[in-house]
Design a protein that fits this description.
The structure holds two protein chains of two kinds. Chain A is mainly α. Chain A contains 13 helices and four strands. The chains are: A mainly alpha, B mainly alpha.
Chain lengths: 341, 264
């Protein structure tokens, strides 16, 4: 089924074409990518000197070409790597964001490979999730096994894991379409296959074949470059973004997945649900205080449900962040007071 | 004095070669290079419409196709696309038709289960939309110089520096692809029979291309500096319209109106 879509001429593909996803999904991802691109440009301006700016263009051309190299697969077919993990490890995650984005844009605009409206979604998967996952996985493993072997294992796993995470995101983006967008008769308007079909269809070929391929290519090229010119491989500067923020960002974007769960979170029952569960409403609950939340059920009137979910997550995080900051300030003042006394 | 065994004829038959992946790589690179090289302005009205207009209107049409739920609108839009195709150079036309048939066929195969399950209208609509979108974008990329399309991106608040990087990318895709083709041919010619090492060489070639691109970009930046480049790059918009541009706009305004009527 969907495998056919992604298996164009034997190469497993992740480029989402137009009209498979709803325009609103594409717009949401577009909004999500703007801060990523902005941050990448700012970081690159700090890290890369002006004289080295052409490097980005040439590296985008390189990212484009990596996808053209066919690699033999067992069974006589061939496949190709995405190369985003490679770019992240060789050039750093921010350069990878820009160069893979440009490579994807050139593919979408001029080669008809991947949609123009779906470009932001493709960039999210392949130019954001993939290089950052590869970058963090590589550094994580490298910090544990500190010899040459560890580095190579790290590169391989970074390639394997990052491609599969990117494929998983692609599958989820496909899979949520029939849940979120239906016509009057309840039939899906866009990609018609739900998560139960999209995830295995995307993940099985990626877990078994494409991920291994990505890992092998990434390791092969990394060790070649490392052997010849180790000095050009990206070394991280000290003030980097914390992986925690990255994780929070992903969680925020993943909040609409909560829409898929049926029922309420355990222990978060309202009075009516308690009645359904145990047959009666405890008196304390019946007459207890009635809290009217500013965003009831994480939704806002007049807003689409999934969008409201993301907004709710952002508002929630901001509130928690402010509370922690205030609390930190108060406790800091208190501790200073104690010291002064 | 030559030893006798050296003069004896050997009947060495190498094992079956598995070169298909090298050939495929070479083929896809040659194809890419030829597509980029072919991107020239040819004779015909459609090639001479203001690129800025073409990009903006194509993207608007793309959005309308994505939003619409009407078969009739997409159908009429297809007629518009067909008439645009007829105004194009014959070679371009054939290439676009060939290119845009592959993906809808794959889409159709993927959608068969959904059609069998009863979701006929929506599936056929997706299929038609996929086809129209691909034809629309191919017409744009075949009738407009790519550097002009890049320039038009300025209207979408894309910084000049990114547009400049995209220009470099397209030029260097050709240079690096030609370099890779040479390396792949060298690998193909110098290896006989099947060997395990041959597969490893692919990653060495990719690594070599990376080092080459690094070196090329350094050379390029020093060359640019020598010519007085200081890191600023500004693009001017071409906003002069001719008679054909107005006709093009009027036709498309008609299409927008049709969308507005049909969508509601």
């Amino acid at each position: 089924m969907a495998i056919f879509v992604f298996k164009e001429f034997g190469g497993v593909k992740m480029h989402i074409p137009d009209n498979y996803l709803s325009p609103s999904t594409c717009a949401t991802f577009g909004v999500a990518m703007v801060p990523v691109w902005r941050r990448a440009i700012i970081k690159i301006k700090q890290e890369v000197t002006r004289q080295k700016m052409p490097l980005l263009g040439v590296c985008a051309a390189f990212s484009f070409l990596v996808m053209m190299f066919n690699i033999p697969l067992p069974g006589g077919t061939t496949g190709h790597a995405v190369g985003a993990a490679l770019a992240a490890i060789l050039l750093g995650p921010y350069c990878a964001v820009i160069s893979v984005t440009i490579a994807l844009t050139v593919q979408a605009l001029f080669f008809g490979d991947g949609g123009v409206l779906a470009l932001a979604v493709n960039c999210f998967n392949m130019a954001f999730i993939m290089p950052f996952t590869a970058h963090y996985v590589f550094n994580f493993i490298k910090s544990f096994i500190k010899n040459k072997k560890g580095e190579h294992i790290g590169v391989f796993i970074a390639g394997y894991v990052s491609l599969n995470i990117a494929a998983l995101f692609t599958a989820i983006e496909f899979g949520i379409q029939p849940i979120l967008f239906k016509d009057g008769a309840g039939l899906p308007i866009y990609s018609p296959y739900g998560l139960a079909i999209a995830i295995p269809a995307m993940m099985i070929p990626h877990l078994l074949v494409a991920g291994v391929l990505e890992g092998i290519i990434t390791t092969g090229v990394y060790s070649y470059v490392k052997k010849l010119t180790p000095e050009i491989i990206y070394k991280e500067s000290k003030n980097r973004i914390k992986p925690l923020y990255f994780l929070i960002g992903i969680l925020v974007l993943a909040t609409p997945l909560g829409l898929l769960a049926t029922g309420t979170a355990w222990g978060e029952w309202g009075a009516e649900e308690v009645q359904e569960l145990v047959g009666f409403i405890p008196n304390g609950m019946k007459n207890g205080f009635n809290f009217s939340a500013p965003m009831p059920d994480y939704g806002l009137e007049g807003l689409k449900e999934y969008f409201a979910y993301i907004l709710s997550a952002l508002v929630g995080i901001t509130v928690i962040f402010l509370i922690i900051k205030l609390w930190g300030k108060v406790s800091y003042k208190n501790s200073q007071k104690v010291q002064n006394d | 004095m030559i030893d006798e065994w050296l003069l004896e004829k050997d009947s060495y038959i190498p094992k079956g070669e598995k070169n298909s992946y090298i050939e495929k790589s070479i083929f896809s690179m040659v194809k890419t290079v030829s597509i980029i090289r072919e991107n020239k302005i040819k004779e015909g009205i459609i090639y001479h419409i203001n690129p800025l207009l073409k990009v903006v209107i194509s993207i608007l049409n793309l959005i309308f196709i994505a939003i619409t739920r009407s078969f009739i609108y997409v159908g009429i839009f297809d007629i518009y696309l067909l008439s645009a195709l007829l105004m194009m150079d014959k070679r371009d036309r054939i290439r676009i038709i060939k290119m845009s048939l592959i993906f809808p066929i794959i889409t159709f195969i993927a959608l068969i289960p959904a059609i069998l399950m009863g979701n006929i209208y929506n599936s056929l609509l997706i299929l038609q939309k996929v086809l129209s979108t691909i034809v629309l974008m191919s017409i744009l990329s075949h009738t407009t110089r790519w550097s002009d399309i890049n320039k038009a991106l300025k209207l979408m608040f894309i910084p000049d520096i990114i547009i400049w990087i995209m220009d470099i990318t397209i030029k260097y895709i050709v240079l690096l692809a030609e370099y890779s083709i040479d390396l792949l041919f060298a690998l193909k010619l110098r290896s006989v029979g099947s060997s395990k090492d041959k597969n490893k060489f692919i990653s060495s070639i990719v690594g070599n291309v990376f080092l080459k691109s690094y070196k090329m970009s350094e050379e390029m930046s020093s060359a640019m500096e020598c010519r007085g480049f200081v890191g600023e790059y500004s693009i001017s918009k071409n906003l002069t319209f001719k008679k054909y541009d107005y006709i093009y706009v009027i036709i498309n305004l008609g299409m927008f109106l049709l969308f507005a009527i049909k969508f509601v």
